[in-house]
Structure formats: structure tokens, C-alpha cells
Amino acid sequence: MRFEHKDILDMESLSVQDITMILDTAEGMKEISKRPVKKVPTLRGKTIVLLFQEPSTRTKSSFDIAAKRLSADSISLSKSTSSIVKGETLIDTARNLEAMNPDIIVLRHPSSGAPHLIAKHVNASVINAGDGIHAHPSQTLLDLMSVREKKGELQGLNISIVGDISHSRVARSNITGFTKMGANVTISAPATMIPRGIEALGCKVAPDMDSCIENADVIIMLRIQKERQENILFPTEREYAALFGLNAQRLKLAKPDVIVMHPGPLNRGVEISNQVADGRNSVILDQVTNGVAVRMALFYLVAGGSRNADTI
Amino acid sequence: MLIRFKGAHIVDPGNINEQKDLLVKDGLVHALLDPGAADPEPGIDTVDVTGMLLVPGLIDLHVHLREPGHEYKETIQTGLMAAAKGGFTAVCPMPNTSPVNDNAQVTRFILDRAKAAGLSRVYPVGAITLGLKGETLAEYGEMKQAGMVAITDDGRPVENARVMRRAMEYATGLGLPVMSHSEDLSLARDGAMNEGSFATRIGIKGIPNAAESIMVMREIAIAELTHARVHIAHVSCEESVDAIRHGKQRGVQVTCETAPHYFTLTDKAVGDYDTHAKMNPPLRSEADRLAVIKGLQDGTIDCIATDHAPHSPLEKAVEFDQAAFGIIGLETSLVLSLKLVQDELLSMETLVEKMSRNPARFLGLDNRLIPGNPADITVIDPDRVHVIDPETFVSKSRNTPFAGIEVKGEVLLTMVEGRIIYQREI
Ligand SMILES: [Zn+2]
After folding, report:
1. Which terminal residue of chain B has fewer beta carbons within 10 Å of its beta carbon, N or C?
2. Cα B181 to middle of ligand 1, angstroms
3. pLDDT tens track of chain A, all 312 residues?
4. Domain A137-283 superfamily per CATH
5. What residues sit in the active site (chain B)?
């Protein structure tokens, strides 16, 4: 089987076979990170541009490490260091990048759909590293990888997602990704954070957090953005923690072997208690490790890896 | 000079709906003749329009001609060329130019430019408040003397209800109608398309129906209080149609318009972040689209306007949430509206009411095709099938979501006061 996608823009455009192939490839990549010399020559001579028009040290580092482990040349461009100055449009930026002949462009952008726009104007592969409140496919793939690793399979699992669904690209991509792989997704949040028509993505909306996580195999907690408070989404962090925070007491409602995930960074004491974040059910650090492996797999596959010799 | 339009089916609501020949003399409708009747006098030029529809000239109550201030998007000249090509013999440009049309000098400038263009008639709409800021009333009296016909802060609502009350009272004293851009900005804030499952799916912040209907209800309440004539612009959703229907039933002097995109498309047209489908109010759900059609059928919606809003690619070839709101419409309005007739949702007569008679009433004009009235007419070729091609547009801008769509019907000829201002090359 070949991986036929030029770009990775969202989870909707990936089939079950595509996702399985990415996860299988990522497992192989993970092994590289455990070697004493964590580098293979697979993408030597390839250029990967990391274009982050929105700050995110974590995601950017993860993509950067992934590129380096495959021996690609990665360059980082951000709003301040590049020619992305006021007045230059995203299409201008795309054309300028294209003139540098990159093989892959990783884009993080505050506007939903920006990677789609860029992808139409460049020959390079575009990987969406998070666009607006739309999609964050590499995060979802690493979540899928982490769950598959711990649970063996994805089919039939109960996945609970709790937090600001309205403003979360992780939530949207995860709902699409997990349901596509046969899991049941239930979400919960204050009603101010549930966007209209979210059920159309295939999830259920639980009336409260307790019923959301009852019998959960996986709980994914989302970060509460304190700066969104001006939008009047909930009265106080105290009340949010009481109604929608994951603590040890509440965790008992889920299955005994439930795993707890979080895309980070954590607001300890708000959406997740210290005890749970650092407890035995938490796989938050495994997610970070898998993030590098998944991103290596994506680079490898969009660069034509499945069409070339196995040089891992 | 005498012209005889021969063989057309004339549709003039409440007056004629049959095959007649129309005789134009010295800029006026001169006579209506039975088919085959002899010329009443010598020296008549005959235009054979057999098989065509002939209607009183179309009037668009809501256009943006962008001049003064944004001539790179459209000028009065190019906007009026587009109007003529679309079959419009009169248009009402909105005041959100730069400078704003909030004083008599700007009103006169617009009318001077329109006169120089010598195409469709122009009835400028002035601002409700100075600079569209929602604070101080503009000098409606002096502007009216200069030729202004109605007031609106279109592009923005008048946020403060007390200012709107005073504007309606003051305008009523001068016999001016008030057009409302109905939008609660606190609800619409940050939104770039219709709120709903599609917006949620593609991660675009939504504008709820209530952002519009709440303001429609407010305007009706204030009109009821002040006995003003209020006209709701670009109605897009079911709740607004309902509110207007109830307002009319109570006897409030409320009229309204919708635009072809609201009965032709839904929010799904945004598709893969197509900024050509970004407008304000946004394209709504299928239920809203059907409610708009229902409103046209039962008379709740009086007019079809275009909200012709030209933008250059600079404003549209960007991220969806960064793109400007608005689409052009003058050259596609009639053909998109004819689809309602072809689908038997509206009669041709009702369509002419929405696009000509009711807008004329709003402006206080008598545009019936009776002897002595100005010869403002539009001749439509109802059968010509063609594909909408923005490259053929005479507007300066190309921002339309209708490119590539096959339509049936086209304007053949537009005449203002006996002068042919547009004629399709055959
Ligand atoms: Zn408006």
C-alpha cells in the first residue's frame, strides 16, 4: 500500500487505512528514538520549513526534533524572523517559500483553513500543525497512537473529551479521528463551550461531566484558556474545577484501567488535579514521546517514504 | 424619435400581462399597441423582440458603488455599467463610502458622477449618523434637497436604540424611509459565517440568526413607536422573516428586501474556505433559505436587492476569517431570481413586483408602463442558457460565488428614459 496524500490538512481527509498506516509507521519510528544515535539518513537533503505564525514551543520542538532525527534540514520561520511582515498576504508568503524549494512546509496559523490556502499555492507538502479552531491532525494521530499502544485497539473504546470544545482544534480533530477509527466519543463542557451542531461530527454530548466519563476507557482533558475569560465562558476557575475538573474522586467513575490524556500545557488545579496528572492513569508524557514518532512518520510518508526503499 | 418594441410579452404587475407592442417616444412610454396593429405614425424604428419578456426597468435598492474612496473596487461608472448589463434602470448606492455620504456635498458628487456616466438612474441613500458612528444625526434635510432618498448606516447597525429612535422620528418628519442594517454586533462579533454544524466542522466562528433577528425586532418596535417607515435590508433568516410578517400584520410600516444569494445558496457554499461565499449577513441554513422563499411568496419580503459589494482580490485571496464580507450581484441578480420562476416558486409577475414595482414604490415612483411615464424598461431573453463567467463582467470586481453555474435567461436590452443604455451583442 502507498500513502497518496501530498498534504496532511485534517483528519477528515484521511481514511482508516491511511491512519493505520501512519500509526504503524510511527511505531517503527519510535524505535529510532530509543537508539543511542537517534538519527537515520532517511530524509537527508530534504528541506522542511517550520512556519509558525502563532507561538507554540511544544509543537514546534516536536516537529523540529522529528525532522532532525530523519536528517532533514529544518528551518524555522516565525512572524518576527521571516519576511512575514504586515501587508504581505499568506499567498505571498507561500510563493516566497516555494521559491526556496522546500519539500515540506509545517504550518501553524491562527486562521482556520490557512493550510488549505497555502497548499493550493505550493508544490511542497503542507502539514497542518494547528489552524485556528479547526484542526490539529498530528496531535490527534499521536493521541490515537498513545491509545492504541495502551489499549491494543481503538474499535469500541469509550473516549471522553472534556473542556473548551468551542475553541479547540484538538477536540474537533479528535472527535473526527477517534470516531473514524470506531471509538465512541462523548464530550462535556459548560454549555458556553459546546459549539452548535457538534453532534454532526459524530460525538455525543453528555449533560454533565460525571455522565461523560462514566465507563470511559480514555479521558482527554482540554486546556482552559484563561485569556478567553473575557468571553464570559464560565464564572470562575473555582467553579470550573468543581464542575469540569478531573480529580481522583471523579476518576473512579471511569473504568479502572482508564487512561488520562492532555495535549498540554496543563493548568494544574483547574482542568486537572496534580494527583491525576501525575498519577498512574496518566499517559501525558507518553503523548509527548509519541508526538515525535508520529511527526517523523508524517514527514517520511509525505516525502514519498512508502514509495521508496525502506531506508529506516 | 420613436421606437416600437415588437412582439414582446409585457409583464407589468397590475397593468399588463400579455403580448403587446410598446411604443416609446421622446423618452416616454407613448402607446401600447395590439400585436400586428399598424404604426400610428411614420418614422418608427422597430426593434423585434419576439419571444422576449419586456418589464418595467429593474430597480436595485441596495448597492455599493465604492466611489468616492474605494475606486480600485468599483467606480460609479463601472458600477452603473454593471447595473445596466444586469437590467437595472435605477440603483440606490449605500453611504458607506470614503468620505461617507453624510452631507449634501457627497450626495451631489455622487449624482454628478452618475449624470456624467449617463447610464442607470441613481438614488443615493444617505447616512443616518455622521461618519456611520452611531452618535450624531446627519443633516437629512439638506441631503434630501440634494437628491438623497433614504437613510441608512448600512455596513453597521445603529447600536444605540435611542439614536435610532431619534433618527426615525426625524426622518419621518421629512418623509424619508429608514433602511436598517440589522445586526447585533455583540452577538455577531468575530463570526465569519453562519453559526451551525458546518461552521463548527470547519472551525470558523459563527454568526447566529439571532444577531440579525434581534435587531429586526428592535427596529420594528421603534418604527411602531415612532410611526416611521422602516426597511430591513438583506434579510437572511427565518426568524427575521417571521418578525417582519408579524410586524406587517400589526400595521407597522415595515418593508424589507432579500438578495438572490439568500434564496440560492446555503452556508455549505463556503466549502473549502471559499471567501467568495463570505458575506454579511452570512449564507444561512436550508431552513432559512426556504423561509426566505416563503417570505417572497407570501409578500412578507417586498424586494429583491443585490447588496452588490465589490472587493478586489486583495480583500478576498486571504485567510477566510481575514477576508472582507460581500459579493457582487448586479450582473447575476436577474438570472438567479428567474430560477424561482423556472422552478415555479414565483410567478413572473411577482418577480417583477420584487425587482421593479415594490422598489419603485419604496422610492415613491410610478414606473408602470402607461403612456406619459418615463420609458424605463428591461427586455429579458428568458430562454438563453449560459454559464456565469466573471471574466465577462463589466464590474471592476469579480467576487462572486456563482462562477461556472449554468443559468437560463439573460438581459437583452436596458433602456432609461428612452435611451438604450445596454444591449447584448448578438
Ligand atoms: Zn448591510
Report:
1. C
2. 4
3. 778 899 999 999 999 999 999 999 999 999 998 899 889 999 999 999 999 998 888 999 999 999 999 999 999 987 655 445 566 888 998 888 888 899 999 999 999 999 999 999 999 999 999 999 999 999 999 999 999 999 999 999 999 999 999 999 999 999 999 999 999 999 999 999 999 999 999 999 999 999 999 999 999 999 998 766 567 889 899 999 999 999 999 999 999 999 999 999 999 999 999 999 999 999 999 999 999 999 999 999 999 865 443 444
4. Aspartate/ornithine carbamoyltransferase (3.40.50.1370)
5. 307
**Does residue B205 sit at the A interface (CB-CB below 8 Å)?**
yes
How many helices and strands, by DSSP H and E, does chain A display? 11, 9
Q: Which of B273, B288, B322 would best serve as a mutation to test chain A binding (most A beta carbons within 10 A)?
A: B273
- ipTM of this predicted structure: 0.90
Q: What's the length of chain B?
A: 426
What is the C-alpha to C-alpha distance for residues B320 and B192, in angstroms, rounded to an integer? 8
Quick one: which of A193, A248, A198 has its CA closest to A219? A248
Alpha carbons B400 and B407: distance in angstroms, whole number: 14
pTM score of the predicted model: 0.93
Give residue B227 CA to ligand 1 midpoint distance, Å: 23
Grid coordinates representing B130 are: 455622521
Which residues on A lie below 8 Å from B314 (Cβ)? 89
Instruction: Tell me the sheet residues that pair with B91.
Output: B60, B122
B 304-323 → A contacts, CB under 8 A: 314, 317-322
How is residue B110 written as a grid cell?
Answer: 455622487
User: Taking a contact as any Cβ pair under 8 Å apart, which residues of chain B between 321 and 340 contact chain A?
Assistant: 321-322
Chosen CATH of A16-135+289-303 out of 3.10.50.40, 2.40.30.200, 3.40.190.10, 3.40.50.1370:
3.40.50.1370
Amino acid identity of B373? N
For strands B377-387 and B406-416, give the pairing: antiparallel
Q: Return the closest-CA partner of residue B369 out of B9, B120, B61.
A: B9
Residue A300 corresponds to which cell in the numbers above? 517520511
Characterize the bridge pairing of strands A184-188 and A158-162. Answer: parallel
Burial of residue A99 (number of CB atoms within 10 Å: 0-12, 13-18, 19+) = exposed
Helix axes A16-32, A284-302, angle to 10 degrees: 110
Structural domains of chain B ordered from first start: 2-54+372-392+405-423 (2.30.40.10), 57-363 (3.20.20.140)
Please report the DSSP string for B315-331 in residue order: HHSS-GGGSPP----TT
Q: Do A195 and B206 make contact, defined as CB atoms within 8 angstroms? A: yes
Characterize B250-272 residue by residue with b for buried, 16 or more Cβ atoms within 10 angstroms of its Cβ, and e for exposed.
eebbbbbbbbbbbbbbbbebbee
Q: Do B205 and A133 touch (CB under 8 A)?
A: yes
Strand order in the sheet with B2-6: B28-33, B21-25, B2-6, B44-48
